[in-house]
Amino acid sequence: MKSKIVSFHQDEARDWVARLACGHNQHVRHNPPWVSRPWVVTNEGRAAALGSELDCKKCDEGKPAD
């Protein structure tokens, strides 16, 4: 299920986490070559990503909000 990004925060390891409109959190790491998300490492990139959609596996599994 798709859900929009509403904000970002960092976890205890300082990895970026997206807060989704559905109430779930999802890591959004830039970890090439496996995951390429260069936009996540800058304030401007994260700001531009607000409102974009990510697949929420927690919604697909019917899990409650984080």
> Structural class per helix/strand content?
alpha+beta
Oligomer: single chain
- The percent of residues in helical segments reads 10-25%
Shape: globular
> Based on the structure given, which CATH architecture is correct?
Beta Barrel
The name of the CATH topology is OB fold (Dihydrolipoamide Acetyltransferase, E2P)
Regions with little confidence, pLDDT below 50 for 5+ residues: none
The SSE string, one letter per element, is EEEHEH
Count of runs of 4 or more consecutive helical residues: 2
CATH classification class: Mainly Beta
- What value does the Rg take, in angstroms? 12 Å
- What is the number of beta strands? 4
The overall number of domains is 1
Q: Which descriptors would you attach to this protein?
A:
single chain, 2 helices, alpha+beta, 30% strand, OB fold (Dihydrolipoamide Acetyltransferase, E2P), 4 strands, 66 residues
